[in-house]
Amino acid sequence: MGLSVAARLWGAPGLLLALALTLTLHWAVALHPPGDYCVLGAGPAGLQMAYFLQRAGRNYVVFERSSGPGSFFARYPRHRKLISINKRYTGNANAEFNLRHDWNSLLSHDPQLLFRHYSQAYFPDASDMVRYLHDFADRLRLHVLYNTAIAHVTLDKDGQAWNGHYFVLMDQKGQTYRCSVLLVATGLSVPNHVDFPGSEYVESYESVSINPEDFEGQNVLILGRGNSAFETAENILGVTNFIHMLSRSRVRLSWATHYVGDLRAINNGLLDTYQLKSLDGLLESALEDLAIVKDQQGKLHVTLKFLLEEAKQRAQAVQLPEDDNDNFALRVAYDRVISCLGWNFNFSIFNSSLRLSSGSAFGKKYPLIKASYESKGTRGLFVLGTASHSVDYRKSAGGFIHGFRYTVRAVHRLLEYRHHQIAWPSTKHPITQLTNAIIRRVNEASGLYQMFGVLADIILLNENATAFEYLEEFPMQILAQLETLTGRKVRRGLFVVSMEYGKNYSGPDKDVFFHGRSVGHMRDAWQSNFLHPVIYYYRQLPTEQEVRFRPADWLLPRPTAIHHIVEDFLTEWTAPVGHILPLRRFLENCLDTDLRNFYAESCFLFALTRQKLPPSCQQGYLRMRGLVGTEHLRRHGVESGLLRDYTTMGQPSSQGPAGQPQDNMKHEL
Fold this sequence. Notes:
The protein has 19 helices and 22 strands. By secondary structure, it is an alpha/beta fold. Strands 1, 2, 3, 4, 5, 6 and 16 form a 7-stranded mixed sheet that branches. The protein has a 6-stranded antiparallel sheet with strand order 17-19-18-20-21-22. It is globular. The N and C termini lie far apart (76 Å). Probable flavoprotein which may function in endoplasmic reticulum associated degradation (ERAD). May bind non-native proteins in the endoplasmic reticulum and target them to the ubiquitination machinery for subsequent degradation. Residues 646-669 are annotated as: Disordered. Interacts with SEL1L. May interact with OS9 and DNAJC10. Interacts with TXNDC16. It comes from Chrysochloris asiatica (Cape golden mole).
């Protein structure tokens, strides 16, 4: 009616203007809707969650402060080479297996959105990641509001809300948004700087020159011991007089710790020049105890904070450590000091009502969250991606794309059940397929492989153990809450399938190349050091108290039984004797049953001589089917001459050769 009045008053031009205003208002509403889900950040984790929300048909919006996705990678790493591998060839056609060795792709249904199509380099350029994330967002039509920086987040209590409150977000223009669930995927964006006397003379990794010519003939001190520090050193290694690297902790090599965030081989040239007596060197000291003094020539000298404080109190010249100790390691003057100390989470935009706080010690750079990735202070606030790494810091790959793409999916599945009553995805199988199901997953699953010790497959047995339900990649540390978080019931018992390294194998002080570092016989499987499958059996679901007070260094409470599949050099657990047979016997002992498959003749004999038949006979022979068949097996049987092809014979009689029922003949091998 309002539009008709406007048309009568303004005529045709007025009608067009009214239509334009209506369309403008419509698009404004479409671009700024109150959402059920708000995602902060259009980096890899934010886009990954947006993909799952969109596929589920949920109401969501992603807020991104920059003009495009992946803004972190537009600037970092400064020297542009990623340390995430882009392994394009594995010799395997299985897409799930290949994701084990693809550290850059996000999960989607589109095979063109694999990172291998964006770079051929084993260590890709960061610009390729930016291009990939742009295409991921555009091709999948994800709902992202660019140039929208969320400046403040607070709570609005409401008993009708999903979690008892709404999250109210305000952007840089004062526009407010309200959502029921807040998913924080902002990463670590605040540079970590140590404040000490003279820190104003220190250049930062974020702004220091990356042109090696600017460092020719200079003495350089680098503060830090991570990949950014070594990346910076690698860039100028050939043009400086020498490089000294100073940090509070010793160097941690990724091949020793099995943690991809520690020093990678691609950046460790300084270790060679240090150990091969070529002037460069590494030192350990607490940075907070140091001070830097600048002399009249502009050279920088390292001293100790207490010496500087004493000099100020006595109004005398600053005493340098070498004045008392002429063998002081840092007695040389430096031309430049560069800080490469990593990043911290940005807590500043969150109102205190959200109770989002940091952890302690080395975990203070991350927000404090539960093993379910939900904030410990506020229900409905989840942390995703790099910022969620406190759950598995230095334990697994949750701080990196090839790890958090799976933890993001786990969070989405938890949300689907909490708010939409959609149970955790599962598949159901007869118990005779239990061994095969486990073997398939440990040989293919990428989530288990990359998030070792964090995500695990859960196998739920039905009441009489004749069938099982298979749940993939559930967070191990919330196992006690499985029923309430997934909608699945534990009726008789359960198996937990995880991937683990040997407990005493990895560590910064370990020699992981020692003689006899691996075992090869199945009887020694429990001593396996390299990544290998471990299966836990519980007669009932562990309690939260049992999880909390589990033995030290155990991922789960002490199980009823445990089985290690012996490590394999090829990471292929398919050997009939070394891998499959011990697993099957372990499962049979737990279930007190026989999981072998039998021909109809053997089942007939068992029926005459035993009170309890093996499950394959119960589910096959007693149902007139012999071995349980599939169309693939039928075709294979026909092609190999083991079966007659009845599908080409019109309407065959109900009796096969020798008077056998035809259905029974069809499924016997």
